[in-house]
Amino acid sequence: MAYHYRDDFFNSTSQPGRTYEEHRQHIFETTGKRMKPLNKGDSKEAKWRLISGRDLLLGASEPKKYAVKYLLPRQGIMMICAPEGIGKSKLAMNLACCLADGRPFLNKFEVEKKHRILIVDGEMTRGDNSDNLRKTALGLGIDGDQLFDLADRFDFMLATEEEGSIDISNAADQAEIKSRSRNSDIIILDSIVTLDQSGSPNFQESWLRIQPFLNQLKAAGKAIILLHHTTKSGDTLGSVKLRISLDTLIMLKKPDDYKEEHGIRFMVNFGKHRNFSGDIAKPFEVQMVAQDGAFHWSVDGCVNSSIEDKFLDLMASGDNVGIALKKLNISSSTFDKNHWPKVEERYKVRRQEGTVERIEHVEKRIEKRTNQD
Question: I need a surface site. Which of 38, 193, 259, 266 has the fewest CB within 10 A?
Answer without folding.
Answer: 259
